[in-house]
C-alpha cells in the first residue's frame, strides 16, 4: 500500500479529539500517574466508572520506574502483594518474611496496561493547573493545559473538564491540594486547615499513615499516595511501594461508595 501523510494526520487528530470529547464529563479525574494514581484508575475503571488520568510527563509511572536509587526493583509488603499479583506482576518473596520484590518496569507497565484495558483514559503530557469549584464551593472539575505550554512559560489559557470527584495523586508536591490551599486558605480537612507537609523518613509509620491519610481533603477532592502524606503531615517511607498501591485502591473504594 502507498502511505498518505494526510490520512495519518487525520487519524491522529480524529482519534485524539474523540478521546478528549469523551472525557469532558467524568465520574473521576485523577491527577498524576504514579503508582497510587494508576491503581485508583484501574479500580475505578474496573467498577465501570468513567475515569481519566492526567499526567504531566510523557510517561506515567511517576517515581516507581527507578525503584530505589535507580535500582529498578521495588519492595512491597505482604498487605499489597495481592494488588500486583492480581494484575499478573511477578512478585517474589524476599528472604525476610512479609517482604516481596518486583521489577519496577514490569510493575509500571502492567498496571498501566490493565488500567487502560479496564477502560481508563490516560492523557499524558497534560498538566493540571487549577480546579473548578461549583456554587456550593465543592470541586467539580479540573483546569488543564499542555505541559509544553507550562514548560515554555507561554501565557496560554487552559481548558476545563467536569467530574464528580478529583483524586490528587501528584506525589510529594501534592499539587492540586496546594492550589486549593492557596486559593482557599484554612479550608482543608487537615489539623490546621492547610498543608501539613511531609515529615522525615520512617517507613513503618509512613506506610500505615499513608492509608489513614488517604481521604477527602476538601469537598470533592481526595488525596492518595505521597500527596496524602504531604497533605496530612505523614513521614516519607523510601522505596517501598505497598502503601502507594493500597492508597490508590482505598481512594477508589471510598469514591465508589459515594457514586
Ligand atoms: C499532572 C502531575 C502534576 C500535575 C504531578 O510521585 P508519584 O510516583 O506519586 P505516588 O504518590 O503515586 O507515588 C509516590 C512514589 O513514587 C514515591 O515518590 C515514594 C514512595 N517516595 C517515598 C520517599 O521517601 O521519597 O507520581 C506522581 C505523578 C508524576 O508522574 C508527576 O509527573 C505527576 O504525578 N504530576 N501530573 N498535573 N499538576 N503534578
Ligand atoms: Fe519519593
TrEMBL record:
Binding-site residues, NAD(+): 36, 55-56, 63, 128, 155-157, 226
Gene3D superfamilies: FAD/NAD(P)-binding domain
Pathway(s) per entry: Cofactor biosynthesis; thiamine diphosphate biosynthesis
GO molecular-function term, one example from the UniProt record: pentosyltransferase activity
Cofactor: Fe(2+)
Residues reported in the UniProt entry to bind Fe cation: 157, 172
Gene Ontology BP terms: thiamine biosynthetic process; thiamine diphosphate biosynthetic process; thiazole biosynthetic process
Catalytic activity: hydrogen sulfide + glycine + NAD(+) = ADP-5-ethyl-4-methylthiazole-2-carboxylate + nicotinamide + 3 H2O + H(+)
Binding site for glycine: 236
ATP-binding in keyword set: no
Organism domain of life: Bacteria
A matching Pfam family: Thi4
NAD listed as a keyword: yes
Enzyme Commission code: 2.4.2.59
Keywords, comma-separated and alphabetical: Iron, Metal-binding, NAD, Thiamine biosynthesis, Transferase
Self-association and partners: Homooctamer; tetramer of dimers.
Similarity comment text for this entry: Belongs to the THI4 family.
Role noted for this protein: Involved in the biosynthesis of the thiazole moiety of thiamine. Catalyzes the conversion of NAD and glycine to adenosine diphosphate 5-(2-hydroxyethyl)-4-methylthiazole-2-carboxylate (ADT), an adenylated thiazole intermediate, using free sulfide as a source of sulfur.
Name of this chain's protein: Thiamine thiazole synthase
Organism: Acetomicrobium hydrogeniformans ATCC BAA-1850
Name of the gene this protein is made from: thi4
Amino acid at each position: 500500500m502507498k502511505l498518505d501523510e494526510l490520512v495519518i494526520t487525520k487519524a491522529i487528530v480524529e482519534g485524539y479529539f474523540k478521546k478528549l470529547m469523551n472525557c469532558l464529563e467524568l465520574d473521576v479525574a485523577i491527577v498524576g500517574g504514579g503508582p497510587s494514581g494508576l491503581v485508583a484508575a484501574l479500580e475505578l475503571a474496573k467498577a465501570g466508572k468513567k475515569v481519566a488520568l492526567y499526567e504531566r510527563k510523557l510517561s506515567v509511572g511517576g517515581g516507581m520506574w527507578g525503584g530505589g536509587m535507580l535500582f529498578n526493583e521495588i519492595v512491597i509488603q505482604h498487605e499489597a502483594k495481592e494488588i500486583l499479583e492480581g494484575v499478573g506482576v511477578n512478585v517474589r518473596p524476599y528472604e525476610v518474611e512479609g517482604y516481596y520484590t518486583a521489577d519496577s518496569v514490569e510493575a509500571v507497565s502492567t498496571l498501566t496496561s490493565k488500567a487502560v484495558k479496564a477502560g481508563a483514559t490516560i492523557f499524558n503530557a497534560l498538566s493540571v493547573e487549577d480546579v473548578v469549584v461549583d456554587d456550593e464551593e465543592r470541586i467539580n472539575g479540573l483546569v488543564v493545559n499542555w505541559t509544553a505550554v507550562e514548560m515554555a512559560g507561554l501565557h496560554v489559557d487552559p481548558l476545563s473538564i467536569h467530574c464528580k470527584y478529583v483524586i490528587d495523586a501528584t506525589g510529594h508536591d501534592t499539587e492540586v491540594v496546594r492550589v486549593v490551599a492557596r486559593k482557599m486558605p484554612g479550608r482543608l480537612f487537615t489539623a490546621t486547615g492547610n498543608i501539613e507537609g511531609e515529615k522525615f523518613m520512617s517507613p513503618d509509620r509512613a506506610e500505615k499513615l499513608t492509608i489513614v491519610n488517604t481521604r477527602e481533603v476538601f469537598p470533592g477532592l481526595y488525596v492518595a499516595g505521597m500527596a496524602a502524606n504531604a497533605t496530612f503531615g505523614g513521614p516519607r517511607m523510601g522505596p517501598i511501594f505497598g502503601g502507594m498501591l493500597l492508597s490508590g485502591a482505598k481512594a477508589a473504594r471510598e469514591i465508589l461508595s459515594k457514586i
